[in-house]
Amino acid sequence: MKVELVVEAKSVNRLINNLRQKQTRVQSAGRQTVNNMGDKIFQKAQGLVPVMTGALRDSGKITKTGPADKPEAIISYGDETIGHKGRPTSAYAVARHEMVSKINPDAYKWLEKTLLEANEDFRNEALRLLGEAIRG
Known about the structure:
The longest helix has 40 residues, at 9-48. The protein is mainly α. A two-stranded antiparallel ribbon has the order 1-2. β1 (61-65) and β2 form a beta hairpin. It is elongated. α1 crosses α4 and α1 (9-48) packs antiparallel against α5. It has helices at residues 9-48, 55-59, 93-98, 110-117, 119-135; strands at residues 61-65, 72-76. 18% of the residues are buried.
């Protein structure tokens, strides 16, 4: 049995174009995964932020950035918003994150706990969106 393979420039170009389209879809799915999970984590964290004046919670924000192959969703707390005792939230956000409270024990490491709890959800979201991109 003889098998003959003919490779033409036209078919190679078609293959290259198809791979580029897949790359773009996969990168887009990756960015969408990071953005979706960043939003979910931020919303859950907002519900756990300790509230005295509301300024620390109000200082929370999510910034979506990064190139196509390295998307980031950065959640942060603390800025120039004036909070407890007239101090900017930037002066106490980290300390409050690390503070154990008998009044509100769920507030201890609210952001870290929320992020760690999202691990399986992130994996599932990534598999779903990347699967769609590859099949698409």
